[in-house]
Amino acid sequence: MRKVLVLFIAVCLVFSLGAGLFTSVPTVKADTSVAGEASTVALPDLTVDTLFFAVDTLSFDPAPPIAGGSVAFCFTVHNQGSAPVPAGYVFSVYVDGAYLGQGTGSNGIASGASEDWGWVDMTWPVDTASHTFMVVLDPNDAIVESNESNNSASISASAAPVPVTGITVTGVNCEVVNNYTFVPIKPIAETLGAIDTWLPDTQGMTIVLGDTIIGLQIGNTTAVLDANIIALDAAPYLNSNSDVMVPISFIFEAFGTNQAIGAMNSVIGATTVVNNGTLQMLAAVLPTNATGPSITWSVVAGTGTATIDSTGVLTATGVGTVTVTATNAASGVTRTEVITVTTAPTTYTAGDVDGDGTVTMLDALVAARTAVGMTTLTGSAFQAADVNHDGTITMMDVLLIARIAVS
């Protein structure tokens, strides 16, 4: 009967593969028997009889692991010797040469008998690279065997690719500084349920979200993330609204891409952009464990015009509508979003009707002529003359302009 592996730890072990992680290489024991010497003592002989992978089950299912999915590493321990293997025998498991963990057989194995094991509830990396599992029996030579050369075996497998089946696209208000996209971290973090604290003495901010702890400082190109110091693309800064602005790449690293995109869509999401302004377009792919999630961006002019770069920064160049498309080349899946480019708001100074940068009695005179119907003002000139913002230009506005001029 198959057993679920009893681990030395109380929780199921989840492995993670990454560059530079696998540095420890197991040593397979050499045969210590003497050539030509007759065996007079009955000894056990441990060997790994079969080695295989099974997805979510302790079976001989030949299907490959699923990238990002749960997988069980299964093997059979066989005693080929003439004496029983005592209870408490040990084996070690390695992944790509790195030690993964150790297990102990609570029961012995009779001569000629075998025992099946499953190292379960591991999460396969989100990639399609080949990974090698090895099991080494009795790694500390605690059991004297008739054959010490057959105590290890290995198997390699690659995950089946997980295609992209859907894409969600959103635009978020941002600020682009030195080619880096910045977004306000406070509303994003709070939308996710985080608690943030501003530290005025050090110009710093701490953010706590569950077990995640973040430390940032204005002007500092490093940040603290879960007790690790990481380098930022650029230093955080305070914008004109006193928002703590951070590189969007850090938002993804701290909160996860899809979770961060959802939060940003809630608080700074937008489908409009001011002409000559920028809008950061974001795409989240589904499923989240897709093995080829890269996105390419394109934009097609409608009644308006815009350009978009490889990072999804949309720059408006003409008033109207444009259609932005996110494409996953590996799967051929696309998603479009219509963005409206609006006219930039008119800027003016109250009372400066002629727009020369100063408020004089000449401005009051032009407002007076408008008030009595001798001329008509439009655009920024009308807004500058309508000092009391009641939608009409009257002698009250003329009086207010005159007071500004003489003050």
Describe what this molecule looks like in 3D.
With 407 residues, this protein is mainly beta. The protein has three domains: 3-158, Immunoglobulin-like (Sandwich); 166-342, Copper amine oxidase-like, N-terminal domain (Copper Amine Oxidase, Chain A, domain 1, 2-Layer Sandwich); 361-406, no CATH class. It has six helices and 26 strands. The protein has helices at 185-191, 248-255, 257-268, 361-371, 379-385, 395-406, and strands at residues 3-4, 46-54, 70-79, 90-95, 98-104, 114-123, 130-137, 152-158, 166-172, 175-177, 180-184, 195-199, 204-209, 212-217, 222-225, 228-231, 237-238, 244-247, 269-270, 272-274, 278-286, 296-301, 305-308, 313-318, 320-328, 333-342. The protein has a five-stranded antiparallel sheet with strand order 19-9-21-24-23. Strands 12-13-14-15-16 form a five-stranded antiparallel sheet, covered by helices on one side. A four-stranded mixed sheet has the order 1-6-3-2, with no helix packed on it. Helix 1 crosses helix 3, helix 2 (248-255) crosses helix 3 (257-268) and helix 4 (361-371) packs antiparallel against helix 6. The termini are far apart.
